[in-house]
Amino acid sequence: MDTNSRLKVAIIGSGMIANTAHIPAYLNLGERVHLCAVSDLRADSARETAERFSIPRWYTEAEDMLVKEKPDLVSVCTSNASHKAMAMLAMRHGAHVACEKPVALNYDDTRELYAYARKHGLVLFACQVLRYNTEYQLAHEWAQEGRLGDIYFSESVLIRRRGIPKWGAFHKKETNGGGVFCDLGVHLVDAALWVMGGPKFTSVSGVTSSIIARSGEEILTSVPESGAPAGVPNMPPYSASAFDVDEFAAGMIRLDNGASIHFKTSWAINLPNEYGMTFAGSLGGLVLPEMTLLTTMGRYQADVRPRVFSEERPYANEVFPGHFFLMENAVDHLQKATPLMVQPEETLNVTAIIDGFYRSAELGREVFADEIVGK
């Protein structure tokens, strides 16, 4: 495609992330894209989303939409368990695909999707958007410049004290595959690996729990604190009795360069809300999100805090700025051959870790890479 080729875009799934991230990000690109249609199994949701954004047509069947609209690019915004089927369906109709993370729930399915995309000259990319945050952009820049030296350890935490997403089907294994690790942990892992230069995992050890979500407690909670800062349009009912995924996940990942990543994340736990990531290198350490470089200056320990100006980041005031950067990069790639920020091999590595993590939690032992990806 060339710069003058306007992309036809369609959306599969009209839930929170479609309404507050994908669609606004596409509309921001103006005449470069034409948002032609949206589909959802819930007719009222599809119709309300189409009306809200003046999208010309809406459908209840994704395939019907793909046949009639013939889009160039499709966003898959459905529940995790249907990502593979919807992404494959869109590609079989000749469309490139932007898929919410994870693109599939195991490594083999992800590999199959990328193999199909490569064979048919299509682009498939996961919406791994945390790496677009200012702090990770700076961390990646400093790591590439060698300011940290060789990074040998990273630790991540993203704790919601009471932040279960009570919309969609996040809380059901049948439709979401997993819980908080699929939702939040995957972002932490992707961002850490990206900053560290993309080492492959050699093993993963993980634990999960589901205690509070099924306790029957009646505690007031906040929709923004559960991951929907702009609210949830078309919100379906939620039942705690259907909760059967992980509300807490923690573990360690060993990498092929000798480094390791430790992490913990939760939707519900009796601990304070917390978010951060650290990196330890041979020349310096880094604390995020405050962006403090811990290093030395001569005989002295030194802490460095850069001045980062918001005007340098055009989407800083958006609810989901990462999606704005991601969609701009995707359209640039399709129209101008600009390199993709999220590469297939990175997504495959992350999906293999997801696969290994849940196997480890189930088996109660460390799981090695050759058990997931083969030798």
Q: Tags for this entry?
A:
375 residues, alpha/beta, Rossmann fold, Dihydrodipicolinate Reductase, domain 2, 9-stranded mixed beta sheet, 6-stranded parallel beta sheet, 15 strands, 34% helix, 23% strand
Report the CATH architecture of the largest domain.
2-Layer Sandwich
Largest sheet: 9 strands, mixed
Strand content: 15-25%
Domain count, please report it: 2
Q: What count of helical segments does DSSP give?
A: 11
Number of beta-strand segments: 15
Across the major sheet, the strand order is: 14-13-12-11-7-10-9-8-15
What fold name goes in the CATH topology slot of the largest domain? Dihydrodipicolinate Reductase, domain 2
CATH superfamily of the largest domain: Dihydrodipicolinate Reductase, domain 2
